[in-house]
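New to this. Comment on this protein:
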Amino acid sequence: MIGNWDAFPEYVALGAIGAASIEWLKCYELKQKSEKSNYESLIKSFIYWAKFLLFLFASGFIAWAINENNPNATVWQVVISGAGANAFANKGIEAALSKEKLFAGNADKSAKVRIRDLF
């Protein structure tokens, strides 16, 4: 049988908890380095929450995939697997987006949330 489907919901939830810890730290980082108006528009945007939930589920799935055949996997191992998967994905996308052209300030205060703002 491929996959330990009995552990799937539990491992996905635990991996998502680990990923959530990284996402909340990222949210705190964004709050500290962004202007208040930019941060508020980001937090209220649909794309931010869609990315947040997508990364939680994807990290939970990866945590399950890493630990599903390990009968001795501890809760801590599954949580750390989810956190690591999330951090790895965030930094990979952040590195790819770092090549984007930079500009100083926000000339248009009504500007929409950019993908780069999420990372």
About this structure: The two ends are 38 Å apart (CA to CA). Residues 18 and 83 are 4 Å apart (CA to CA). The chain has four helices and no strands.
